[in-house]
Design brief:
Pfam families: Glycos_transf_1. The radius of gyration is 21 Å and the shape is elongated. Strands 3-2-1-4-5-6-7 form a 7-stranded parallel beta sheet, with helices on both faces. A 3-stranded parallel beta sheet has the order 8-9-10, with no helix packed on it. Helix content is 40%, strand content 16%. It is of the alpha/beta class. It has 2 domains: 170 residues, 3-Layer(aba) Sandwich (Rossmann fold); 183 residues, 3-Layer(aba) Sandwich (Rossmann fold). Strand 6, helix 5 and strand 7 form a beta-alpha-beta unit. Helix 1 crosses helix 14 and helix 7 crosses helix 12. The mean pLDDT is 96.
């Protein structure tokens, strides 16, 4: 049966909790099963491997990639990587003579190596990444070699599990990330002294700030400044059900990451759940796709410093009707642009287009 379909092998560096791996999982589970037989390869195991197998996706973990390619014989290999040159990484795919190779270029980097030429389509995850790529490399990010494909989000799931008519918990907001210092900004904690002063002045009711992905530095800061009465550090989560439960426990998402976002998966998911998002710009040529997702005053708020961020938090906490309106605007935007089934259909069409351009027939 699989031999009658287009065989696609997705390749990721790990099967952990990161956004890259989650995007890969969403693609392989939402591609048209009538047209494609999808499988996943990773040199490193992780929590996402079981989720893939539970959804019927074949996984290959820790094997030598070239013998696997020769045995599995994929028609399409889809790589999920940063985009820059990695010596030796592409050689097995070149030796195996894969008909079509597609890359989700997670951070919008350029691979000028000779092996990099074997990639038939580079997919940027945001228009920001494509435009920065053009600016830095003086290479037009246009088809057939380049195009933008947003990351998929299960907006249907969040619409069901985070319905518009639900009651938002008062005086509560949150943030979520991996427990990685690189995912943090000083703004994430720098707002607390300002918010504390607002509470003391009776400008703001005492609040709850729920955090998934706390790091030791954050926990120490909260403890040393006696902000425990405001901040709750929560355990990591894995599934969209757990994520929807978290989104239902807060009234908006406070995003802060000094390295920025090449897409901003958690932002898109929060939007799909009907939550407004507060975020901030990043300096120079750092990732700034968070500003592509969040429209100031429409789907959330953009803050430039800790005082502006604290004022944005205060506004959303004290204007729940406006916060709900922004959240529903975000939900509509997410459904239009990021719906997993629609994005996966676009990806499948790209596979077919590239195969047909090479005269491939199944």
């Amino acid at each position: 049966m699989a031999e009658e379909k287009i065989k696609v092998l997705h390749v990721a560096s790990s099967l952990g909790l990161g956004g890259t791996e989650k995007v890969m999982q969403s693609f392989v589970t939402n591609l048209d099963k009538g047209k494609f037989y999808t499988a996943v390869f990773s040199p490193t195991n992780g929590a996402r491997a079981k989720l893939l197998r539970d959804s019927g996706i074949e996984t290959f973990i820790g094997l030598d990639i070239l013998p696997l390619l020769e045995k599995f014989r994929p028609d399409v290999v889809h790589l999920h990587r940063a985009g820059w040159a990695e010596p030796g990484y592409l050689r097995p795919f070149k030796l195996a003579r894969i008909p079509v190779i597609v890359e989700t270029n997670v951070f919008g980097h350029h691979d000028p190596s000779p092996d990099g030429k074997i990639i038939d389509r580079h997919l940027f995850v945001s228009h920001f990444c494509a435009e920065r790529f053009e600016k830095i490399n003086s290479i037009p990010a246009l088809p057939p070699k380049y195009s933008v494909l947003y990351n998929p989000v299960d907006t249907d799931f969040f619409a069901t599990h985070c319905p518009a008519e639900r009651n938002f918990p008062p005086h509560t907001f949150g943030r979520i990330s991996r427990a990685d210092p690189g995912k943090w900004s000083t703004l994430a904690l720098g707002i607390l002294p300002n918010l504390h002063k607002m509470v003391e002045k009776k400008e703001l009711a005492p609040f709850n700030y729920n955090i998934i992905g706390g790091i030791p530095e954050a926990e120490n800061f909260v403890k040393e400044n006696n902000f425990n009465k405001y901040v709750n550090f929560l355990a990591p989560i894995l599934t969209d059900k757990e994520l929807s439960d978290f989104f239902n426990s807060i009234s908006f998402l406070a995003h802060a990451n000094d390295t920025g976002e090449s897409f901003g998966l958690v932002i898109a998911e929060a939007m799909a759940a009907g939550l407004p998002v507060i975020t901030h710009p990043c300096k120079e040529l750092r990732d700034n796709a968070q500003l592509e997702l969040v429209d100031h005053g429409e789907t959330g708020l953009i803050a430039n410093n800790a005082q502006e961020y604290a004022e944005a938090v205060k506004f959303l906490l004290t204007h729940p009707d406006k916060a709900r309106e922004m959240g529903e605007n975000g939900r509509n935007k997410a459904s239009k642009l990021f719906r997993a089934q629609d994005v996966a259909t676009k990806l499948g069409n790209i596979y077919i287009e590239l195969l047909e351009s090479k005269g491939f027939q199944k």
